[in-house]
Amino acid sequence: EGAISGIIQMPGDEGAIPSLKPHISAIIPNPAMETATVSIWSPFEVSDAIIELYDIQGGLVKTIVLPILPKGNSAITIDLADYSSGAYMVILKTHRGTSTKNMVIIK
Fold first, then answer.
1. Could you read off the pLDDT of 45-61 as tens digits, one per residue?
2. Are 49 and 22 in contact (CB under 8 A)?
3. What is the pLDDT of residue 19?
């Protein structure tokens, strides 16, 4: 019997099993122009979380250190003014694992 993972409990969805690790729940807007807000959900407080932004070639272009990622919903705004149009990956790294979402920047 396999374990179920990655299902997020939303209001009104009491039958779902909540995710067991912090994750990126959304990037708004996407595509983005000047700024994007990364929405993160965590089932517990996490210290020393990192958000990394990678370009399409796999080059690290930005690192944001979050000394404390609180339990619940958080939002981090990223300034994209200095980045070219294209596809990017946003990666959340914690001691409990990683979460990745794609983002497009248009100028």
1. 999 999 999 999 999 99
2. yes
3. 61
3-state helix/strand/coil string of the chain: CCCCCCCCCCCCCCCCCCCCCCEEEEEECCCECCEEEEEEEECCCEEEEEEEEEECCCCEEEEEEEEEECCEEEEEEEECCCCCCEEEEEEEEECCEEEEEEEEECC
Q: What is the per-residue pLDDT for 40? A: 95
Residue with tokens 């179920």: 4
Structure tokens at 8: 């997020």
Spatial CA neighbour of 20 closest among 74, 75, 95, 77: 95
pLDDT at residue 18 tops 60: no
Mean pLDDT over 61-79 rounds to 94
Residue 46: exposure state from Cβ atoms within 10 A (0-12, 13-18, ≥19) = buried
